[in-house]
Design goal:
five-stranded mixed barrel, about 110 residues, globular, 1 helix, mainly beta, 6 strands
Length: about 110
């Protein structure tokens, strides 16, 4: 399944379930697609980020990549840093409750 279809399916799921489909009682990790509404900031010993108006904690040592279209239907990825995340950017985050365990920037 290509990235556009995956992103579209996640957007549809979010639209149907509401803006915060990650409020599970267990430890399942889920992907959430959205837009950065507040760039990363420090809160004590950890960093936070706002995605679609919801604050998430960025765990240390996570994988952050920037995915971009190389050719029609072909994507490449390169490493990114927390500091490269800006407001208004499209993002997919893999979260467990409110903790981010992976970030993909678009």
């Amino acid at each position: 399944m290509n990235l556009k279809k995956t992103y579209f399916m996640i957007v549809i799921i979010v639209a149907v379930l509401g803006s915060s489909p990650v409020l599970f009682a267990d430890n399942r990790a889920v992907w959430v697609a959205g837009e950065v509404t507040q760039r990363p900031w420090r809160a004590g010993d950890h960093r936070m980020i706002g995605v679609d108006g919801t604050a998430y904690k960025i765990l240390s040592g996570i994988r952050i990549t920037h995915r971009y279209l190389r050719n029609p239907g072909a994507y490449d990825e390169r490493s990114a840093t927390v500091d490269s995340i800006s407001t208004g950017r499209k993002i997919m985050i893999k979260v467990r409750k409110k903790d981010i365990i992976q970030i993909i920037l678009f």
